[in-house]
Amino acid sequence: MRILLIEDEPRIAGFVARGLGEEGHQVVVAEDRAGARAALTDGPYDLLVVDRMLPDGDGLDLVRALRRQGDATPALCLTARDRVEERVEGLYGGADDYLVKPFAFDELLARIAAITRRAGAAETLQVGDLTLDLAAHRVTRAGHEITLTAKGFALLRCLAKNAGRVMSRTRLLQKVWDLEHDPGTNLVDVQISYLRARVDRDFDRPLIHTVRGVGYVLEDAAR
């Protein structure tokens, strides 16, 4: 999943981002509401993890504003506030769940999985006979399971989320590796070759296509 983590404490932000990254998620970190708003312009995100006590105000106010705009992106509030009234306020304010600090990382993962299940349609992506189960990190094609590394899954997920849209190498570097354009890197090309060997090699119809001079596209059509 692509997750926006809004947390101003560097220790907690680093711990959560690192752990979620190791689980195969792409994590973007913002330290306040202003940074979160800027990050949201580069959406969409599958989940928001929002600290309530931010330098520029209550993170719950950001969730409320998104809900008023019709944005239903699942949101999990993190906070040191443990009073029942405040947890209730968070849930009524548009948060899908509420986790009090300090917390065990396994509990965070469990709550994220539960929120994702409740989100329903956001759990799977389908391109032709290729299916991605985002919660289980499971890929199948024509009923055959395909095993991928965490980064391979993240790249395929990015392509599937943008199915039919040509994605430049620069855009893929930003979204999957959180890197700015580096003309000397071949990360994208190496990972695309890796995906093709697993997603396309044993099937008659390729799904990953190269658009010369532009980038790559995942779609159920020959180019």
Write structural notes for this entry.
- This protein has 223 residues and is of the alpha/beta class.
- It has helices at 10-22, 33-40, 59-68, 84-92, 105-119, 150-161, 169-177, 187-199; strands at 2-6, 26-30, 47-51, 53-54, 57-58, 75-79, 97-100, 124-127, 130-133, 138-141, 144-146, 167-168, 208-211, 215-218.
- The strands form 4 sheets. It has a 5-stranded parallel β-sheet with strand order 2-1-3-6-7, sandwiched between helices.
- Helix 6 crosses helix 7 and helix 6 (150-161) packs across helix 8 (187-199).
- It is elongated and about 60 Å long.
- The mean pLDDT is 86.
List the helices and strands and how they pair.
Elements: E1 2-6, H1 10-22, E2 26-30, H2 33-40, E3 47-51, E4 53-54, E5 57-58, H3 59-68, E6 75-79, H4 84-92, E7 97-100, H5 105-119, E8 124-127, E9 130-133, E10 138-141, E11 144-146, H6 150-161, E12 167-168, H7 169-177, H8 187-199, E13 208-211, E14 215-218
Parallel strand pairs: 1-2, 1-3, 3-6, 6-7
Antiparallel strand pairs: 4-5, 8-9, 9-10, 10-11, 12-14, 13-14
Helix pairs in contact: 6-7, 6-8
Across the major sheet, the strand order is: 2-1-3-6-7
Shape summary: elongated
Helix content: 25-40%
Described by strand count, sense and barrel closure, the largest sheet is: 5 strands, parallel
Give the CA-CA distance, first to last residue. Answer: 28 Å
Summed over residues and divided by their number, the pLDDT gives a mean of 86
Q: What's the total helix number?
A: 8
